[in-house]
Model the fold of this input.
Amino acid sequence: MRIGNFERELSEQRVEQEKETAIAAARSALSGLGKDECEDCGKPIGEARRRAMPSATRCVICQTIHEREQRKVIR
Done:
């Protein structure tokens, strides 16, 4: 029973952290402030991506990985 509670708490913490990350990303998008470097891998975000999505905080590869992970969480 304790393990179930522990896992539930971890899950709730993860959801809360994801919410906070989403809120920060939304605020950044609303302000139009993106980044020059990817927040995940630290590599430069390509100019074409920054032009297409000025609020981008991840490179295309890391954004793709992030979106895949988000879909796994939803399921």
Remarks:
- Residues 2-74 form one domain.
- The chain has one domain: 2-74.
- The mean pLDDT is 85.
- Helices lie at 2-31, 47-52, 60-74.
